[in-house]
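Table S2 (continued). Query chain:
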Amino acid sequence: METLRKLLNHPEFNVVLFLLCTALFGWPFISITGPSSPESMFVYLFGVWGTVIILLYCIARAHGKKPHQQRPESEN
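Corresponding output:
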């Protein structure tokens, strides 16, 4: 689990996710479902959208889990 958290914390992963989403929502992949079956296009788009939302949630959780830093004690 720690390895996944380290992977999700890399800024490069966000760029890869953006490029992957751009490709998956682009015309070539959407046209694979075919114009004759709007049900399969709906399932494809909903599945990709749901996967992206889950990945964004995981990225947000990974960025939120920072090690607890102690403040130095102030001298009076």
